[in-house]
Amino acid sequence: MSRIKLNTLDPSFKHRVARQPGGEAIRACFACKACSAACPISVVDKRYDPRKIIRMALLGMKKEVLESDFIWLCSSCYGCHEVCPQNVRFTEVMFAIKNLAVAEACVPPGLTGQKALLKQRGRLYEVGEFENEKREKLGLPPIVEHPEDYDRLL
Amino acid sequence: MKASAIESIFLTRKPRPKEDAALRVLVLGGDQTGMDLASRLAVEGFEVLLVGGTAVGQTSEGVDLFPDAVLEEIQGFVGGFEVILRTRRDRLTERVGFIVAAQPARIVPKYEQHSLTKSRKVISLSDLEAGLRTGNALEQPLDEWFHAAFLYGLKTESQPAVFARVLDAIEKLQGQGAIQPYVFTRHLKVAAAGLERRYRECRERGTLFFKFDDAGPFFDSSPNGPVMTFTDPLLHLEMDLEPDVLVVDEELLPPTMLEPLFKSMPSSRFAAPFLKPESTRFPGVETPKAGILAVGASRGVFDPEIIRGDIEAVIVALKRPMPEPMQESLPGPPEVDPGKCTMCLTCVRLCPHGAISFSKHAEADGATCTRCGICAEECPMEAIKLEPASQQPEMSVRIRNCLVHTGAAGKIVAFLCSRSAAHAMESIGRQIGENLVPIPVPCAGTVGLTHILSAFESGADGVIVAGCFKGNCASIYGTLLAEDRVGQVRGFLGEVGIDPGRVMFVSTASNTPGVLVHAVRNLELTITRVNNVEQCEKSQKRGSGAIP
Question: What is the model's pTM?
Answer without folding.
Answer: 0.79
